[in-house]
Amino acid sequence: MRLGRSKALTGPYLDRNGTPMKQGGGTLLLEGNADWHGVGYNTVCTSDGVDYLVFHGYNVKDKGRSKLRVERLEWKDGWPVLRSH
User: Which domain does 53 fall in, by range?
Assistant: First the structure.
């Protein structure tokens, strides 16, 4: 999952380094790995003042079954980062 932001709804959307997403930009927040495929379809939830990224992924070690995952989000320079990464 790659992130970008804009000051206007219509764009342009830029990543953390200022690269337009239309030109291949996008700040990486989440990607699959050898244990998890197809991670995505996410939302951010806040509970007791803590932000979490809630998303699904296919657990390779469990025959590819879809699982709900919840990872704690932290913020660095105004951009979200996963605590576990």
Answer: 31-85
* Same domain assignment for residues 23 and 38: no
**Has this prediction a pTM greater than 0.85?**
no
Q: Based on the domain organization, do 23 and 41 belong to the same domain? A: no
For residue 7, the 8-state DSSP code is S
Alpha-carbon distance of 75 to 6, in angstroms, equals 18
Find out whether 56 and 82 touch, Cβ atoms under 8 Å.
Answer: no
pLDDT tens-digit readout, 40-49: 899 999 999 9
Residue 77's identity, in one-letter code, is: D
- Which tokens belong to 8? 């206007």
